[in-house]
Amino acid sequence: MMRWLLWLVAGVLLGGIVHLAGVLYLPRVAAQDAYLRLSPISAVNAVVPVGPPTPAAASMPFMDPAFATAVCRYDLARGPLKLAAPVSQAYTSVSFYSRYGAAYYALTDRAAGRRVIELDLMTERQRSQMPEEEDVTAADRLIVTSPTETGLIVIRALAAEPSQMAMAERALAAARCQTH
Asked: How many CB atoms lie within 10 A of CB 2?
């Protein structure tokens, strides 16, 4: 009896380890992750609107038809990135994802407290190379540190009513994502 219990515990433990390793490794080997799916419709370091989802297809998973969406595929190899996104009347959010889909930062218009969400995106190495006095004098400047050199920035603007979708899309069209 004890031998069977030991085999059962070992099997469950091994199965758990294999499952965990598979779940953690899968995003790195996925052939059609969000970054690659958006490659044909978006340029690097530029904000591009994403079309609304349809019942048959969507550019990204879990898209909400009540939101206008734009993306910026970023590459920090050439330097830090400056993001400026005007807020819409209803609600605006900016989410940051690493190259393999891990969300690492998010900001809403209410947290920004301004009519434009402005921030600098850079790697830890680029942040450490910033002059010390510049960091002190720009106390109100928001700096986000990216864990990877490439990734996605997803900007969403809520259209509370279908008639407000054009206004939300205009707000996203004015967003900028470019290197310094």
From this structure: 6
Residues 6+ apart with CB under 8 A from 173: 49, 70
The DSSP result for 129-162, as a single string, is TS-HHHHHHTTT--EEEESSSEEEEEEEEE-SSG
3-state secondary structure of 143: strand
Question: What is the model's pTM?
Answer: 0.78
Question: Quick check: 134 pLDDT over 60?
Answer: no
Q: What's the length of the chain?
A: 180
User: Is residue 36 exposed (0-12), middle (13-18) or buried (19+ Cβ within 10 Å)?
Assistant: exposed
> How far is 92 from 131, CA to CA, in rounded Å?
32
Q: What pLDDT score was predicted for residue 114? A: 74
**C-beta of residue 48 within 8 angstroms of C-beta of residue 72:** yes
